[in-house]
């Protein structure tokens, strides 16, 4: 529309409107040049975008027209590798999936190795109801889809279904899948379900006999992953033997006081392997306890380990050795408290059991101190100056002398306990002497006296 009066009209004032008309006409022309007519390529791009939109909104009639009337290829790349089949599978659109397959769509096509089967399992329930995704899976499998296909991380459709909690898909795919399949990080479908807190899927897979002791590349089992993430409801689903495993590890190295004292009598230091177990469990390294037990590792050896010694022992993986060394560093970093060593108070009565308990505790503390000294000497490396090293060495020497003093005191105490044990006479609860000493003579005498008085008055009257 041209602005201003028609310049052909005789009564128009040319002097007033000419410039205005030309200026507006020029502006209109420039605006028309800003939005030129679209090229065929641009029109095609807009149509692809519209095709993508109608599939996403579930408009099946419009989607079919793009194939039947507008001549689009059935496996057209709509955007970023999304084809009509992949997109409709992801949204659980059973009708459109059937239509596309009937018109020649490739059932095993993929987007960066994510197949239609995987995508049908990948959407959460609020995007595509699990019942719809199950129908899509049935259609895809009936048309020859490969349910065992894996993506770049070796994840298959069963693992994806377990991740999203799609129990219907898990039940359908399990008989068709390799239940022992693991991905790049050593996770099974059970591990994926545990990690994503899907209790219904976890319970089903456990009932189906999935392995619970299979460890990933980090050395963790599904139960340990649940424990580390505080998934108590998931943990309760595991067999009791697996739940008690952590406690068994803590009990693994327990030794009675009697056995430890017997070792001390023969000048053998107890292993204190239970303390090793505690540190290993706390640092999520309990799966190496069997190795340490078989190698007869003591607390003193454990606390003084170096990376090279762990490697020679059989801890092959570098990340495993790193975790152990970090745990040892944290242990040695904590200063010893003076009250960690027991003090015997004057005029306080104690039993042999009290003394034995405190003796074992003192030996354990000394063992830990000695291990700390050795650890410091072995790992005295890094950007330390000669002066710093000299200070540390002096401190270590002071600790050594203190430890030697404690050792001597404990040796004397050990000998004293043995003497006390030999001096103590065990009570004889079944000897004749004991029975005689326990006969109730006083009660018998009192009863006879009362009876005699009663008999006297009876006869007198």
Task: Describe, in plain words, how this protein is organized in 3D.
With 461 residues, the protein is mostly helical. It has helices at 14-34, 40-56, 60-68, 84-90, 94-102, 116-122, 130-142, 157-164, 167-173, 189-195, 199-207, 222-228, 232-235, 240-243, 245-252, 257-265, 273-282, 289-294, 299-303, 307-313, 318-333, 352-378, 386-423, 432-437, 441-460; strands spanning 110-111, 114-115. It is built from 25 helices and two strands. It has three domains: 38-146, Serine Threonine Protein Phosphatase 5, Tetratricopeptide repeat; 164-243, Alpha Horseshoe (Serine Threonine Protein Phosphatase 5, Tetratricopeptide repeat), CATH 1.25.40; 255-423, no CATH class. It has a two-stranded antiparallel sheet with strand order 1-2. 61% of the residues lie in helices and 1% in strands. Strand 1 and strand 2 form a beta hairpin. Helix 7 runs parallel beside helix 9 (167-173). ANK repeats lie at residues 80-112, 185-217. Keywords: ANK repeat, Coiled coil. It comes from Sitophilus oryzae (Rice weevil). This is Ankyrin repeat, SAM and basic leucine zipper domain-containing protein 1.
Q: How many DSSP E strands?
A: 2
Helix content percent band: 55-70%
Characterize the main sheet: 2 strands, antiparallel
Q: Strand content of the residues, in percent?
A: under 5%
Distance between the termini: 153 Å
* Category by helix and strand content: mainly alpha
What spatial order of strands do you see in the largest sheet? 1-2
| Overall pLDDT confidence | 77
> Could you say how many structural domains there are in total?
3
Q: What is the 3D shape?
A: elongated
Uncertain stretches = 1-33, 426-438
N-to-C series of helices and strands? HHHHHEEHHHHHHHHHHHHHHHHHHHH
* Tally of helical segments: 25
ANK repeats: 80-112, 185-217
Protein name: Ankyrin repeat, SAM and basic leucine zipper domain-containing protein 1
Pfam family, one: Ank
InterPro entries: Ankyrin_rpt, Ankyrin_rpt-contain_sf, SAM/pointed_sf
């Amino acid at each position: 529309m041209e602005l201003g009066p028609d310049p052909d009209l005789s009564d128009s004032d040319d002097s007033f409107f000419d410039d205005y008309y030309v200026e507006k006409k020029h502006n209109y022309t420039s605006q028309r040049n800003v939005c030129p007519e679209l090229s065929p390529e641009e029109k095609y791009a807009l149509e692809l975008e519209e095709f993508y939109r109608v599939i996403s909104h579930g408009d099946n009639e419009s989607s079919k027209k793009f194939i039947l009337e507008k001549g689009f290829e059935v496996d057209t790349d709509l955007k970023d590798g999304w084809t009509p089949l992949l997109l409709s599978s992801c949204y659980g659109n059973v009708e459109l999936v059937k239509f596309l397959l009937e018109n020649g769509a490739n059932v095993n096509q993929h987007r960066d190795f994510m197949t239609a089967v995987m995508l049908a399992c990948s959407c959460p329930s609020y995007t595509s109801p699990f019942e719809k995704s199950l129908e899509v899976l049935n259609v895809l499998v009936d048309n020859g889809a490969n349910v065992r296909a894996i993506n770049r991380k070796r994840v298959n459709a069963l693992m994806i279904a377990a991740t999203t909690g799609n129990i219907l898909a898990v039940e359908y795919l399990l008989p068709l899948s390799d239940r022992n399949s693991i991905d790049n990080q050593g996770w099974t479908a059970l591990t994926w379900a545990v990690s994503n807190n899907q209790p219904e899927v976890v319970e089903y897979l456990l009932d189906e006999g999935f392995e619970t002791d299979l460890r990933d590349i980090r050395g963790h089992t599904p139960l340990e992953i649940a424990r580390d993430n505080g998934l108590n409801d998931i943990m309760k689903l595991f067999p009791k033997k697996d739940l008690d495993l952590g406690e068994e590890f803590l009990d693994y190295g327990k030794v009675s006081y009697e056995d430890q004292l017997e070792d001390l009598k023969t000048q053998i230091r107890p292993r204190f392997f239970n303390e090793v177990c505690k540190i290993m469990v706390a640092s999520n390294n309990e799966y190496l306890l069997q190795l340490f037990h078989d190698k007869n590792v003591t607390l003193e050896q454990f606390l003084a380990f170096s990376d090279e010694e762990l490697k020679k022992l059989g801890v092959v993986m570098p990340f495993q050795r790193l975790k152990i060394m970090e745990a040892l560093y944290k242990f040695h970093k904590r200063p010893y408290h003076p009250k960690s060593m027991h003090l015997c108070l004057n005029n306080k009565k104690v039993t042999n059991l009290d003394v034995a308990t405190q003796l074992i505790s003192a030996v354990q503390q000394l063992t830990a101190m000695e291990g700390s000294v050795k650890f410091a000497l072995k790992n005295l490396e890094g950007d330390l100056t000669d002066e710093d090293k000299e200070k540390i060495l002096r401190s270590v020497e002071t600790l050594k002398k203190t430890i030697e003093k404690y050792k001597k005191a404990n040796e004397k105490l050990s000998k004293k306990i043995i003497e006390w044990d030999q001096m103590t006479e065990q009570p004889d609860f079944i000897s004749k002497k004991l029975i005689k000493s326990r006969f109730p003579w006083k009660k018998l005498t009192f009863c006879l006296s009362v009876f005699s008085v009663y008999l006297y008055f009876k006869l007198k009257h």
